[in-house]
């Protein structure tokens, strides 16, 4: 090999090294209602420390009651070997509407397909809403990303108490909403928005940089027998948990919506943070309907801009399903 080639290789390697050094991990808080797909999202995130510096996991009632969503977040942390990450419990009920749950989808324990137990490490002291206020108030300007995997109650309550915390937020990436193909909990609404539309309105009105991954995209990133086999082939404890969870979780959507595979809704948010190039969307204007009635909780997405209103959300509508499962498999392989 000529000296010139060697030097070119050395220059390339140092450039690559500099690039990887420059891409500092994203400061992240994961707000979640685990939930089967939430646990898959948490494992994916906790397996990716180079890209995601998880400051905390904050829990909210949603799929099941707060005590169980908080226990399940602690379980995911234990399974990922990341018990240094604090878990703060937050709101036990939505801001206004009567609480709803989805135990029929996620199981009575909120984690279908696997045995649960009481994790060793307890919750962090203090409420998640206060944690959000304290952390976002003192953060560098626009430095912290929030991955929002359940009802948006915790962040909404924090914004109501201290609106200026918006200055500490880089962006909020939400699993929620639905436009092109209708909802999953009602014909018009997706569960997370239906569970607390008032909270979603507060977050939207705050002016924070928002990205939504609605059912429009999560219903395109679906399991298949081959993809479940791909996950199983990772052949470690984490991948076995994910396969067992997904095999149980996807039954509801496949049986009730006639889908050929099951979605992994919340994990798409983490995949978006890790590899945004897997997804496509556009900036649009969106409003949330919180009026009682058949469209309660609907996200009214002006995809064609007919209202000529300013865009307030990046609406993700396409996703590379195989790329998602390749990423999930590769990252699960890093866990035990
Ligand atoms: O509609 C899907 C969403 O509702 C997911 O976040 C799932 O975990 C449930 O919370
Ligand atoms: Ca969720």
Could you give the distance between the termini?
41 Å
- SS-based structural class? alpha/beta
Taking the sheet with the most strands, its summary is: 9 strands, mixed
Q: Based on DSSP secondary structure assignment, what is the total number of beta strands? A: 9
CATH superfamily: Ribonucleoside hydrolase-like
Number of helices: 13
Helical residue percent band: 40-55%
* Domains, number: 1
Form type: globular
Small-molecule binders here are:
alpha-D-ribofuranose, calcium ion
Strand order of the largest sheet: 3-2-1-4-5-6-9-7-8
Q: How would you spell out the order of helices and strands?
A: HEHEHEHHEHEHHEHHHHEEEH
**CATH hierarchy class name:** Alpha Beta
CATH architecture: Alpha-Beta Complex
What is this structure, in a nutshell?
This protein is α/β, with parallel strands linked by helices and 336 residues long.
Describe the overall structure.
Helix 3 links the parallel strand 2 (52-59) and strand 3 (87-89). The radius of gyration is 20 Å and the shape is globular. The chain has helices at residues 3-22, 36-46, 66-80, 103-106, 128-138, 153-161, 191-195, 197-205, 215-218, 225-232, 237-257, 265-274, 321-332, and strands at 26-32, 52-59, 87-89, 144-148, 169-175, 210-213, 279-288, 299-302, 313-319. It has a 9-stranded mixed β-sheet, sandwiched between helices. The model has no long low-confidence stretch (mean pLDDT 95). With 336 residues, it is α/β, with parallel strands linked by helices. It has one domain: Inosine-uridine Nucleoside N-ribohydrolase, Chain A (Alpha-Beta Complex). The site of calcium ion (CA) has 9 residues, from loops. Alpha-D-ribofuranose (RIB) binds at residues 33, 35, 37-38, 62-63, 149-150, 175, 184, 190-192, 265-266. GO terms for molecular function: purine nucleosidase activity; uridine nucleosidase activity. Residues 28-326 form the Inosine/uridine-preferring nucleoside hydrolase domain. Keywords: Glycosidase, Hydrolase, Signal. It comes from Pseudomonas xantholysinigenes. Residues 1-23 form the signal peptide.
